[in-house]
Amino acid sequence: MAYRDVCHQRQRPSLDEILPADGVIDEVAVTSSSASPASISPQSPAAALPRFPVAANPFFEAPAPLALTPPANDVSPSQNYSVFTTAQKRFIVVMVTLAAFVSPLSAQIYYPVMPMLADTYGFNSMAPINLTITTYMLLQGLAPVILGPVSDACGRRLAYILSFIIFTAANNGLALQESYAALMALRCLQSAGGSGTVSFGYGVIADISTPAERGSYTGIMAAGVMIAPALGPVIGGLIASFFGWRIVFLFLALLSGVFLAVYVLFVPETARRIVGDGSVVPKEWWRRPVVQWCTHRALPRTERVQGNGTSPSASTSTNARLHLFNPLSALSILLHADALILISTIGLLLFSNIAILTSTPYLFTVIYDLSTLQIGLCFLPLGVGASLGAIITGKILDWNYRRHASALSLPLDTNRTTDLRDFPIEHARLQAFFPAILLCLATIIPYGFALQASAHISVPLVLQFFNGFATISTTNALNTLLVDLFPDRPATAAAACNLVRCWLGALGAAVVENMLRDMGLGWCFVVLGVVFGLGGAMGWVEYVFGRGWREKRAAGIDESEKKRNGRTATAAGAGGESGICTSTAEEGAKGQAPA
């Protein structure tokens, strides 16, 4: 009997036939009613499903057949997590690291040109120029709250392209502007364009890496972020000294423009709700790099498979529209107790770190009588230490994950994901946190007394090196855990973290001068050490109670999944009686599976 006849004679399947044993539909591929039966593989689960009419949706450019894809982290242990090779992953991580480097670079490169800007506009004090830093940091925290959800909902490429277009245009405007009002407005635009790149980067790393290898990749990106405060003042001072302050902004515009060109040409879309494991080829031009577009177009039409063994129409279902997103969804992350603890801890640690960075120019000028260029060079030890700490801690995080997985007899293949529901991920990440927080305390408390005693300049610089190493080690462990807890919304979670981090950092920069004046050097940094200690205590709270909070959140999500599956089964029964085909695209946020 022909397969066509079998399909026509088959009766509507029961719920038990449709749903697997665990009651969760991993993937459903639904074809349009116009598709020929021959185009449906006998092995395809779509052959056993009833057919429904395609519902019109105003958010689609045109009605299109859709496929239900699994959530980003709902991957079978036997299925590869990502089709990207190790070399491709490394290239992608290098690109997102360069992108994340831009935001702190544009902030730090600005410091050497501030006196020149004050002279240009005829200001007698630095207060108006300092205001541009305050507004920059406020936007640096606020912009990712909107851009992070855009990245999760609409794809990484769209978010990166829009951000770098804004950032490049703002820097060109800053190089040409002639008024203080224009400077203020364009600095806000510059911050809005560049500040989302860090949260995007965490999203990309979550897209392409499993928890077994995620620590190393986040370490690489964190190293790029932390080297910017060391290089920014040096680069800005050299360019401004020889070519003037306008060339500093032209340099940033050139840097971002080159990056944007390379990104558009070569970097693929990685958002799992768009391309799954990376095998789906998106239709929209902004979701394809030029190289992928040319390669795909060169193939015969019969070979243009746009998915993992599914038809093009089915596999590109989630690409058919720009998903709606909630710009306040980043703030909802803070409603979860474990996320609030992690993000608050990161904010407290960065509060003290920014206080050290902000006070360095003034203290080293007064105590050691250094020039502007020499002050810039003094940032190198802290930046180098932070970069080394990020890379080394990333390796330690991966090693500790493998150690826990081996103890639980779990697979260690870095291209296979692991169900983290029964995995002590909090312990695997935070066990690297506690030694680092002790090193933070051991370096920041004597730092202030060394400056107070006018010790040799090598003493505070060595302490800065180890403090930078320890601080980034703590934040790297916390950020990696945050991504592990929200793998379906990594950029949104990172945006929430960025908001708290930047605003607490701005507070640290604002109060450190008063603290130094009222407390003195020694006791000021003792208080900052107490802040580090408070962060360590909050990390211990997460270590003890985090798994319970995570399991409670998972139970709530499981209940939502059961209700949704029940509605799906009811709709399937009604559709089977009518014998007509429809398709529905599940939102990735609704399909959230907890870590």
Automatic annotation (TrEMBL):
Q: Which Gene3D superfamilies match?
A: MFS general substrate transporter like domains (1.20.1250.20), Multidrug resistance protein D (1.20.1720.10)
User: Which molecular function terms from Gene Ontology are attached?
Assistant: transmembrane transporter activity
| Keyword terms | Membrane, Transmembrane, Transmembrane helix, Transport
Q: Which domain of life is it from?
A: Eukaryota
The ranges of region (Disordered) come to 556-595
Kindly list the places in or outside the cell where this protein is found, as annotated in its UniProt entry. Answer: Membrane
Q: Major place of localization?
A: membrane
Q: What range(s) does the Major facilitator superfamily (MFS) profile domain occupy?
A: 92-547
Membrane-crossing residue ranges in chain numbering: 91-111, 131-151, 158-176, 182-205, 217-239, 245-266, 339-364, 370-393, 430-450, 520-545
Q: Does the keyword Transport apply?
A: yes
Name one matching Pfam family.
Answer: MFS_1
Membrane topology annotation: Multi-pass membrane protein
A cellular-component GO term for this protein = plasma membrane
| Name of this protein | Major facilitator superfamily (MFS) profile domain-containing protein
Lineage of the source organism?
A: Eukaryota, Fungi, Dikarya, Ascomycota, Pezizomycotina
